[in-house]
């Protein structure tokens, strides 16, 4: 009895230990392995694989899309030149839109779309369509694996027919070469070149110094020792469209010092009876310098505390500013009014890389 029960128990344990894969029933296999790997389907050749005429047709289709991309890129460049920025037209159902923006967006979209369609059609109809299975491998490839990768790349290049199908190759290179020109052309929209505008202001020889508060010409007697005055060039009106652009470079501050307190010889030569004129624009980040210490002859920028000594060529004595405030040489005209003897000798405001 005991041995028979023992045998039954052993058999029962063995049955439990049998792997489920031993079940060979058709339905049972799927029930026990619902995520079983079905494997790759049988490879079916495409018509282009067996008919060279079909392959030629696909080649022409790919070349057509690449050619469309080239034409669209040319249209993008032409649109950028032809359409003015203020040209507006009505397009249903979008309404009134900019002709320039619409033409640029449409042409560039077609150029990129055509390259994508051509590349997809090329890969689906002409490149090798055989399904491949690549087993996972360690990150550090062995020399044999590297050689195999190079061989696979070489085979892929051969299967693509890039060297054999010159029409596709040439049109693809043409499309890819022209599309970046769209970005180059867009650089023109950044605005006109600055040329040397950053180096010059409105100040010219003989221009009167106009009081910013009264809009009247400044005279030497209007500026007392220890006072701080602000001036603008004659002819610059606050209502003009370029006022803010020009005053940002030409704003001037005037301080009257005792001539004996001026340490810098050039500063003394460019002054008039101890009146010195300096740019109001800080050489750090362009803030307006407006705080004056009468006893020390220092002016302070309120933004980052750059401090300049007006008795010593406006040199920097504290703060992040990189160089002194530019000085404007002044004199008086026949009417006794303060006038400029020319423009600033150096660019005003923050440093820029062309400064010299």
Q: Structurally, how many domains make up the residues?
A: 3
What is the C-level CATH assignment of the largest domain?
A: Mainly Beta
Report how far the terminal alpha carbons are from each other: 111 Å
**What would you give as the CATH superfamily of the largest domain?**
Rieske [2Fe-2S] iron-sulphur domain
Shape: elongated
Mean pLDDT: 85
| Share in helix | 25-40%
Structural class: alpha+beta
Strand content: 5-15%
Q: What do we call the CATH topology of the largest domain?
A: Rieske Iron-sulfur Protein
The number of distinct helices, counting runs of at least 4 residues, comes to 10
Folded structure, characterized:
It is a multi-pass membrane protein. InterPro entries: QcrA_N, Rieske_2Fe-2S, Rieske_2Fe-2S_sf, Rieske_Fe-S_prot, Rieske_Fe-S_prot_C. The protein has three domains: 2-32, no CATH class; 58-190, no CATH class; 200-340, Rieske Iron-sulfur Protein. The N and C termini lie far apart (111 Å). Mean pLDDT is 85; it is low at 1-26. α4 (52-82) runs antiparallel to α5 and α4 runs parallel beside α7. The protein has ten helices and 13 strands. The strands form four sheets. The protein has a five-stranded antiparallel beta sheet. The chain is an alpha+beta fold and 356 residues long. It has helices at 2-17, 26-32, 47-50, 52-82, 99-125, 143-160, 166-178, 180-186, 243-250, 265-270; strands spanning 88-91, 95-98, 209-211, 228-233, 252-256, 275-279, 291-293, 298-300, 307-309, 315-318, 327-328, 330-332, 338-340.
């Amino acid at each position: 009895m005991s041995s028979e029960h023992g045998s039954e128990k052993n058999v029962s344990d063995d049955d439990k230990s049998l792997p489920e894969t031993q079940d060979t029933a058709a339905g049972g296999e799927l029930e026990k392995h619902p995520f079983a790997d079905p494997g790759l389907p049988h490879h079916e050749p495409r018509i282009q694989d067996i008919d060279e005429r079909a392959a030629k047709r696909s080649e022409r289709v790919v070349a057509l899309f690449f050619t469309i991309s080239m034409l669209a890129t040319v249209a993008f460049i032409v649109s950028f030149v032809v359409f003015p920025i203020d040209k507006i037209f009505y397009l249903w159902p979008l309404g009134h839109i900019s002709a320039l923006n619409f033409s640029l967006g449409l042409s560039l979209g077609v150029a990129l779309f055509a390259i994508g369609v051509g590349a997809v059609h090329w890969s689906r109809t002409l490149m090798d369509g055989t399904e491949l299975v690549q087993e996972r491998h360690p990150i550090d490839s062995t020399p044999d694996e590297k050689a195999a990768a190079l061989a696979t790349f070489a085979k892929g290049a051969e299967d693509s027919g890039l060297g054999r199908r010159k029409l596709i190759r040439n049109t693809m290179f043409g499309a890819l070469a022209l599309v970046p020109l769209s970005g180059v052309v867009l650089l023109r929209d950044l605005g006109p070149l600055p040329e040397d505008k950053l180096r010059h202001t409105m100040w010219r020889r003989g221009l009167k110094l106009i009081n910013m508060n009264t809009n009247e010409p400044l005279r030497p007697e209007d500026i007392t020792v220890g006072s701080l005055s602000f001036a603008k060039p004659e002819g610059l009106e606050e209502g003009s469209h370029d006022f803010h652009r020009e005053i940002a470079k030409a704003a001037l501050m005037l301080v009257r010092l005792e001539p004996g307190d001026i340490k810098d010889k050039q500063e003394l030569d460019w002054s008039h009876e101890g009146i010195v004129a300096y740019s109001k624009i800080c050489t750090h980040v362009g803030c307006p310098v407006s705080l004056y210490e009468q006893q020390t002859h220092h002016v302070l920028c309120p933004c980052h505390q750059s401090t300049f000594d007006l008795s010593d060529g406006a040199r920097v004595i504290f703060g992040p500013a990189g160089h002194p405030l530019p000085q404007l040489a002044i004199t008086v005209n026949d009417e006794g009014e303060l006038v400029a003897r020319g423009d600033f000798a150096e660019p005003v405001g923050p440093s820029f890389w062309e400064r010299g």
